[in-house]
């Protein structure tokens, strides 16, 4: 389990945990990024930006946000 | 009319909400503002048989809380107005996220007409939505549409025409007993009965700000404490969790995904891999911007020429030396005409921005810019309002409302006036047409880039001075790419160009009238001579601008009046030089290539126009508006002088 920033572009990930306050969790949830959902990291390494895609829903993050999203590779 | 219905159109951003709204209302559109704020409010009234429908397009949101301005407007409208129903537009390919909002509106207790839009895209992705099951669960008809191609709109009208029989959704989310009990206790405090449960829940989970009332606040805190005591976690977490569980339970029953992990990579993802690539992303973006201006010129110029010839022909028809003839020739045709000739270029600019927005690329541009913007202390999302600033600074500053953070809003609004708006374009076009015929695109493009650079530097410095906290993190939805609709882009460019023409007809007409009068008075002086009132004002100011290379009194007057609106710079020059053979040759003799450059830089930077200052003031306060004026005047002057002196030092011009 690592922050999203450590994943290679192209890998499939599952969201495990958010390391941020209620407000930003809420924002993520509203955009459909919830614990247990699976995405492909279609773009982004290192300092970002990062794009998570499930084929129809695409969410972009800056590096500051990506480091707070804990994922595991699937 | 025997029946009047008011219907709100709600949905996530990028769900095709606007397409549905446009399909329903056609040309019957009224654009205004939401009360108290400057967010655009679109309304359309359509009469069918003996029934009138008024559709209100509410801002696209992901949730409903008091957190962002857009969400607050949506929530206020839904909770306060008398509505017969809400059309909730859902992106079929993103059922879960879109259904979350559907559920919130359902909790409001309103009548709902759910529209499953973009159903073709969903099917292409292997997603099947069981409309019959959804309709059966909720006891209301779900309508499948492809709004971009007009499919399913007649079905939607069928539902609308039988709105009298439409019931409320019969299946809804029930929260654990303590939560429901607490909500019940608070419901009485909200005047509108139907939405009171939603509002009570909002107060409990912190999504709605509690009214200024000590006793109310105390009651809420007590209730929250009571519930949280018997719970392992936060109340807002619990409520959100329940909402998601509900969404998932519905999705499980009604959405079928034929997906494997080995699925074909969606085209959007493949495009994203290229355009957001860390090495190619920036250059691709710059190329896109360059192409934009290249098209504005190559496509726009022939039309500009036609209109110009038309005005010249018109002008030669007006003979005589009477005061009326003089006004029509020098004031109306030369002044207002000088601005109006650029209508084709401006239409093309707005059209291309709309195409970029509609295709989904604009969101990526913000994204590509994020790393770079971040380094400079701005938010990547700020880039979209800044890009909109190329069209007009006013809506761009209004778009700042979509940013969640106060300091991002302030800094972006302070940066936007340096984005080269379409009103500055006529000034550039006039001067490059005379001095830089072979490098038109390059010169104008570099002015736009200069604007961006100044905007970012100003924001950076202001952040250093006034704000200390780190840049807030970026999260944003990236809509799927799709072929942009020419019709939508034309419509949007048409509305915006319409405003430009209207401004030329009213505001600029007024300014030109004043300038013409001042140029003709006192009685007996030669029109637009140095002895006229305006000539004296200009001559008094001219020495100030001498170090910048444009010491003619006409240039000073143009800049003074350009404060009203930047097109007026051209309008003034047109009015003042109209007496001479033509504007272009006058400018050719009064300016050099170098002083033309410094004049264009001055026009770009020196002050936001009156309307922009007013919007800055309304959006972020008087203090900031004053600062914006002060900074821009100083900066504009310093830069113009610098350009001219450096150029002379290097032996140019």
Q: What's the topology here?
A:
The complex is a heterodimer of chains A (74) and B (653).
Chain A lengths: L1 E2 L8 E7 L3 H9 L7 E6 L6 E4 L4 E4 L1 H4 L2 E5 L1
Antiparallel strand pairs in A: 1-6, 2-3, 2-6, 3-4, 4-5
Chain B lengths: L2 E9 L5 H9 L4 E4 L6 E9 L2 E7 L11 H12 L4 E7 L3 H13 L4 E6 L1 H6 L2 E3 L1 H8 L4 E2 L8 H9 L15 H11 L8 H10 L8 H16 L5 H20 E3 L9 H9 L5 H37 L5 H18 L2 H17 L1 H15 L7 H6 L4 H7 L6 H10 L9 H11 L4 H27 L8 E3 L8 H35 L12 H13 L7 H10 L4 H11 L5 H8 L2 H13 L4 H11 L1 H28 L4
Parallel strand pairs in B: 1-4, 1-5, 5-6, 6-8
Antiparallel strand pairs in B: 2-3, 3-4, 7-9
Structural description of this entry:
The complex is a heterodimer of chains A (74) and B (653). The mean pLDDT of chain A is 81. The longest helix of chain A has 9 residues, at 22-30. Helices cover 18% and strands 38% of the residues of chain A. Chain A is globular, with a radius of gyration of 11 Å. By secondary structure, chain A is α+β, with helices and mostly antiparallel strands. Chain B has three domains: 3-165, P-loop containing nucleotide triphosphate hydrolases (Rossmann fold, 3-Layer(aba) Sandwich), CATH 3.40.50.300; 177-257, Helix Hairpins, CATH 1.10.287; 281-471 and 491-649, no CATH class. Chain B contains 28 helices and ten strands. Chain B has helices spanning 17-25, 69-80, 95-107, 119-124, 131-138, 153-161, 177-187, 196-205, 214-229, 235-254, 267-275, 281-317, 323-340, 343-359, 361-375, 383-388, 393-399, 406-415, 425-435, 440-466, 486-520, 533-545, 553-562, 567-577, 583-590, 593-605, 610-620, 622-649, and strands at 3-11, 30-33, 40-48, 51-57, 85-91, 112-117, 127-129, 143-144, 255-257, 475-477. In chain B, strand 3 (40-48) and strand 4 (51-57) form a beta hairpin. The relative contact order of chain B is 0.07. The chains are: A alpha+beta (74), B alpha/beta (653). At the A-B interface, helix 1, strand 3, strand 5 and helix 2 of A face helix 3, helix 10, helix 11, helix 15 and strand 10 of B. Strand 5 of chain A pairs antiparallel with strand 10 of chain B, so a sheet runs across the interface.
């Amino acid at each position: 389990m690592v922050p999203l920033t450590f994943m290679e572009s192209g890998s499939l990930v599952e969201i495990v945990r958010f390391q941020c306050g209620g407000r930003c969790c809420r924002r993520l949830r509203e955009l459909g990024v919830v614990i247990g959902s699976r995405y492909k990291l279609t773009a982004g390494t290192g300092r970002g930006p990062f794009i998570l895609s499930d084929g129809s829903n695409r969410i972009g993050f800056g590096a500051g946000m990506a480091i707070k999203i804990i994922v595991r590779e699937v | 009319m025997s029946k009047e219905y008011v219907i709100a159109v709600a949905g996530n951003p990028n769900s095709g909400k606007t397409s549905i709204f446009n399909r329903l209302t056609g040309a019957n559109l009224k654009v205004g503002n939401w009360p108290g704020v400057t967010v655009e409010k679109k309304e359309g009234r359509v009469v069918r048989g003996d029934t009138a429908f008024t559709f209100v397009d509410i801002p696209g949101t992901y949730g409903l809380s008091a957190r962002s301005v857009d969400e607050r407007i949506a929530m206020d409208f839904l909770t306060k107005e008398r509505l017969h129903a809400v059309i909730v537009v859902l992106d079929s390919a993103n059922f879960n996220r879109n259904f979350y909002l559907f559920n919130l509106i359902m909790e409001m207790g309103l009548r709902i007409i759910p529209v499953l839009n973009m159903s073709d895209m969903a099917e292409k992705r292997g997603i099947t939505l069981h409309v019959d099951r959804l309709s059966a669960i909720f006891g209301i008809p779900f309508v499948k549409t492809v709004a971009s191609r007009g499919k399913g709109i007649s079905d939607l009208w069928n539902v609308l025409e039988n709105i009298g029989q439409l019931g409320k959704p019969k299946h809804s989310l029930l929260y654990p007993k303590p939560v429901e009990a607490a909500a019940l206790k608070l419901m009485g405090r909200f005047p509108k009965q139907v939405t009171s449960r939603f509002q009570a829940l909002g107060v409990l989970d912190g999504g709605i700000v509690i009214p200024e009332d000590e006793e109310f606040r105390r009651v809420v805190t007590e209730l929250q404490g009571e519930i949280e005591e018997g719970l392992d976690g936060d109340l807002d977490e619990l409520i959100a969790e329940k909402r998601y569980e509900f969404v998932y339970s519905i999705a499980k029953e009604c959405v079928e995904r034929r997906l494997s992990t080995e699925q074909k990579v969606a085209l959007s993802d493949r495009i994203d891999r290229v355009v957001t690539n860390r090495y190619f992303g920036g250059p691709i973006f710059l190329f896109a911007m360059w192409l934009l201006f290249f098209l504005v010129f190559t496509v726009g110029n022939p039309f500009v020429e036609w209109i110009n010839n038309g005005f010249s022909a018109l002008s030669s028809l007006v003979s005589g030396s009477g005061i009326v003839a003089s006004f029509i020739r020098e004031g109306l045709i030369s002044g207002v005409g000088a601005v109006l000739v650029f209508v084709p270029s401006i239409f093309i600019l707005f059209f291309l921005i709309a195409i970029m927005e509609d295709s989904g690329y604009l969101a990526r541009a913000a994204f590509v810019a994020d790393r770079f913007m971040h380094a400079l202390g701005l938010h990547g999302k700020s880039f979209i309002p800044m890009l909109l600033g190329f069209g007009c600074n006013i809506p761009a500053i209004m778009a700042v409302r979509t940013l969640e953070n106060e300091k991002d809003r302030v800094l972006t609004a302070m940066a936007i006036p340096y984005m080269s708006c379409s009103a500055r374009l006529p000034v550039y076009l006039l001067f490059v047409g005379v001095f830089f015929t072979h490098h038109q695109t390059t010169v104008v493009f570099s002015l736009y880039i200069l604007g961006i650079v100044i905007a970012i530097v100003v924001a950076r410095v202001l952040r250093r001075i006034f704000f200390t906290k780190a840049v807030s993190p970026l999260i944003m939805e990236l809509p799927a790419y799709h072929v942009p609709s020419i019709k939508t882009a034309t419509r949007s460019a048409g509305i915006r160009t319409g405003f430009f023409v209207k401004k030329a007809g009213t505001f600029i007409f007024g300014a030109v009238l004043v300038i013409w009068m001042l140029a003709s008075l006192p009685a007996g002086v030669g029109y637009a001579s140095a002895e006229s009132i305006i000539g004296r004002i200009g001559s008094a100011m001219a020495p100030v601008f001498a170090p910048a290379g444009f010491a003619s009194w006409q240039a000073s007057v143009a800049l003074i009046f350009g404060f009203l609106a930047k097109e007026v710079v051209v309008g003034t020059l047109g009015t003042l030089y109209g007496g001479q053979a033509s504007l272009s040759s006058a400018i050719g003799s009064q300016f050099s290539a170098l002083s033309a450059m410094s004049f264009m830089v001055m026009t770009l930077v020196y002050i936001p126009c009156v309307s922009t200052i007013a919007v800055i003031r309304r959006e972020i306060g008087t203090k900031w508006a004053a600062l914006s004026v002060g900074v821009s005047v100083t900066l504009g002057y310093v830069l113009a002088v610098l350009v001219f002196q450096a150029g002379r030092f290097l032996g140019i011009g």
